[in-house]
Design brief:
This protein is mainly alpha-helical. The chain is built from 24 helices and 6 strands.
């Protein structure tokens, strides 16, 4: 747990002005001495903060390998990769990418135009280019697209002594060595052994005697969100990726999964908010508006359905004008209730708390919740309207409409995402704005339908 005081959490622990001054004065030796002793995260922050002219000096002062470590650590927005790479000489940029871990290099290249990707692959080291090309072919958002091919395997028939030799030779280029994966003569995954077990085992012991053959792996075609859940459930630092014949193709590390979880959460929140994407913070109003307008236009069209429904009940409203006053109250309350139910259902699906056998229980529970909340709200509404307008019949009508609307909205808010999940559609698409609009329609039909039926009593 981080018990650091809030005011110190974002404190800069290096002299930013001093580094800038060293760059301006072109003091290469002093800059490198001070800059390269910083934590990689601090190096990345400084790199992003300085203006392009100073970054050009950094490209001259730092080797491609040193800059690669900055790109590995930096949380650069996806749309900024192209901007930073265009500042560099193409050969320098290609060499820098080749020094990155393969999965991270692929993430960078996926944000570029195809012509740029081809250019960089042509200029970089051939071995690195071959590994990167292999991952670029995997479908986006799958295990294959986020795995790294830089991992360590040892033969199951080898001794601990020879395994340690392999580990010492391959560790410098591996992304993680906490798990050493064991393969047979055909490179099929047969087990896993931890670094700790290797260290404490007798040197002449065969690997197959100390390995664990109870392996949890993921398929190369698995969705990245499913991979994230696997690592989260088992508290792994890394998980192997295999093909349909159990050949190990790569590994996915926990740091990549943190990025996936952040990406998926951002995607779901965007959909719930009725925004196309929130992966990046838009730098201008036009870009932000372009993403929001399609959703708003769609909701306007749906809103016209609500307006058309109200128009159908114009005669009822004209006879008792007071009815119109309470339309926003009923529609808003039903919409809020549906959104609450939607949030519970979507979260349950995302965390897998809702399994097939408990979906019916969820609907029953939400129906009960809707009935209780609807009844309490209805009683409260009846009392308020009667005290305010002294119209008991209208108060009872609005109260009844509130009860039924909340009950129906709560059920629809949980049923719709469950249904969408069942037919393999992202349940987050059943976003708050859509649920709200749908419940507006339902609540108006209920309210004005009841009013029309009992118009003679009003």
């Amino acid at each position: 747990m981080n018990n650091q005081p809030e005011e110190l959490k974002n404190e800069v622990i290096y002299d930013e002005d001093s580094l800038r001054e060293l760059l301006v004065n072109e003091d290469i030796h002093s800059f490198r001495q001070e800059y390269l002793t910083l934590h990689p995260y601090d190096r990345a922050i400084f790199y992003e903060k300085v203006d392009p002219k100073l970054r050009e000096l950094m490209y001259f002062y730092l080797s491609p390998k040193e800059l690669a470590e900055i790109f590995e650590t930096s949380e650069i927005d996806e749309d900024e990769y192209k901007e930073f790479l265009e500042e560099m000489d193409a050969t320098y940029a290609a060499e820098m990418i080749s020094y990155m871990f393969v999965d991270n290099a692929v993430d960078v290249l996926k944000e570029l135009d195809k012509k740029q990707v081809v250019s960089y692959l042509t200029l970089m080291d051939k071995d690195a280019a071959v590994q990167i090309k292999a991952l670029l072919h995997y479908e986006e958002y799958t295990a294959g697209s986020i795995m790294t091919t830089e991992f360590v395997t040892v033969p199951e028939n080898s001794t601990v002594r020879s395994a340690m030799t392999i580990l010492r030779n391959e560790a410098p280029s591996a992304e993680t060595i906490y798990y050493v994966f064991v393969v047979d003569d055909h490179q099929r995954l047969t087990g896993v052994v931890s670094l700790r077990d290797l260290i404490i085992a007798d040197e002449d012991t065969l690997i197959r005697e100390i390995m664990s053959d109870r392996i949890v792996s993921v398929s190369v075609s698995d969705d990245q969100e499913d991979v994230a859940r696997t690592i989260q459930d088992y508290n792994f630092l890394a998980v192997p990726v295999v093909d349909f014949q159990q050949h190990i193709l790569g590994i996915i590390t926990v740091d990549d999964i943190i990025d996936v979880l952040d990406e998926e959460a951002s995607d779901d929140y965007s959909k719930l908010a009725g925004v196309s994407t929130m992966d990046t913070f838009d730098k201008n109003s036009f870009s932000a508006a372009k993403k929001r307008i399609p959703w708003l236009i769609t909701l306007i069209v749906l809103g016209m359905l609500t307006a058309n429904l109200i128009d159908l009940f114009t005669e009822t409203i004209s006879q008792v004008a007071l009815l119109a006053v309470f339309i926003p109250l009923i529609a808003g309350t039903a919409g809020n209730s549906g959104t609450q139910s939607l949030a519970v259902a979507v979260r349950g699906i995302a965390t897998r708390d809702i399994e097939d056998e408990s979906k019916f229980k969820l609907l029953v529970r939400e129906a009960g919740t809707g009935l209780i909340t609807g009844l309490v709200c209805a009683i409260f509404v009846v009392l308020l309207i009667f005290i305010w307008k002294h119209e008991l019949v209208i108060a009872l009508l609005v109260g009844t409409a509130t009860l039924v609307s909340i009950f129906v909205a709560t059920i629809s808010g949980s049923f719709i995402p469950l249904f969408m999940h069942k037919i393999k559609v992202d349940p987050a698409v059943a976003s708050g704005p859509f649920i709200t609009t749908l419940n507006d329609v339902i609540s108006i039909i209920i309210y004005l339908g009841l009013a029309t039926a009992f118009i003679s009593s009003l």
